[in-house]
Amino acid sequence: MTAPLDFHGIRLYPGLIDRPAQEALVAALRRVAEAAPMFHPETRFGKKMSVKMTSAGAFGWVSDRRGYRYEPRHPSGVAWPPIPPEVLAIWRQVSGVDRAPECCLVNYYSESARMGLHQDIDESDFSMPVVSISLGDDALFRVGGLARSDPTASTWLHSGDVCVLAGEARRAFHGIDRLKPGTSTLLPQGGRLNVTLRVVT
Ligand code: MD3
Ligand code: FE
Q1: What is the pTM of this model?
Q2: Ligand 2 centroid to residue 5 C-alpha, Å
Q3: Superfamily of 5-198 according to CATH
Q4: Which end of the chain has a smaller Cβ tally under 10 Å, C or N?
């Protein structure tokens, strides 16, 4: 494995996952979405997010009028399915920690979906990294600092890229501004899947 690039404190492994392994990941994520169907989370203001989500693992991320939080069950009441072994193998390859992730959040972006600038700070141990896997169409990723008003920098994430968010970058503001539709043939209907692995407790 070649050394990662440093993009504003983020460890970026461009093209870490080859095409056959990307296809195996998509198949595994399809099975996750069969057990725990994707849904458009609602913000506390009752507005639906443009990204669809589901999760695997002990905890999943949910948002509704009560606010956002980690929950041990899908909104339907079923337990989240286990994190696929192919996904856990990537965590072991790049995370640098011995703990296992407790949440595998799966985000699906249609060509018009985006994710506004936010921090991931609902977890209790910020010494644990977040690992992110990009699959499908290219996405314009933006990262800033610890304050929303800090300057930001952008880069395109491609199918098969893996990011590790550790240290200072773990609590940086970040988001997805837009996709570049038609840039990948991985997903038959187009769009983008992003998987983030987190230790929650
Ligand atoms: C930087 N996902 O699920 S992945 C998220 O592409 C999220 O779906 C985006 O932000 C996506 O919360 C960005 C890259 C990423 C993930 C987590 C981070 C960057 C991060 C946590 C802290 C700092
Ligand atoms: Fe995030």
Answers
A1: 0.97
A2: 20
A3: Alpha-ketoglutarate-dependent dioxygenase AlkB-like (2.60.120.590)
A4: N
